[in-house]
Amino acid sequence: MTERTIQRYALTRRQKNYLAVKYAVDFLIALIAVLVLAIPMVLIAVIQKILEPREPVLFRHERVGKDGKKFMLWKFRSMKSSAPQYMAAGYFANSEEYITRFGRFLRSTSLDELPQLIQVLTGKMSLIGPRPLIPQEETVHELRKAAGVYQLRPGMTGWAQVNGRDLVTDEDKAAYDREYLENVGPELDWTIFWTTIRKVLLRKDIKEGAHLDI
Fold it and tell me: What range does the domain containing 67 cover?
């Protein structure tokens, strides 16, 4: 990482104004999405209970959000509850053994992320922004803090995700987060939005076991 990369970036007045509008638009879009996707989300929950009756439908795990404050991230559960609880799946051996068959489908299609629409409504997340990290990802945390990335709300998708998704290194992830912070605006968010849709549909840049999706 270069010296410039780790210097704290201060949002411009224009960016702050954009973010205020962005969060209002996020709320409206998330509200519409929840109403439209309510039935598919219920179907996912029912299928999970049929296939894994003893497993909880939702996965909740502590993540780091805006201003470095911790919150509980919600996802549809894609791994067995017997999986290690406090580290990303890619950090322990045989992580793929813990992923359920239906969970693998949810991951590859990103349908496991749908419950986060509710967290956009509550203001804990944004539709687009740096993905929320687990507290144990110390390297990226330190780089984010130094750059000022925690001025932003975490997103359901982000610049690092469309530039490699599960395949980027910690240093590259932090660099993309910094780049997003410096250039946050309607054009970049629009690019991330459509690139996310394309990558999800094509199921690109997915590495099994790289998420923390218990």
Answer: 4-202
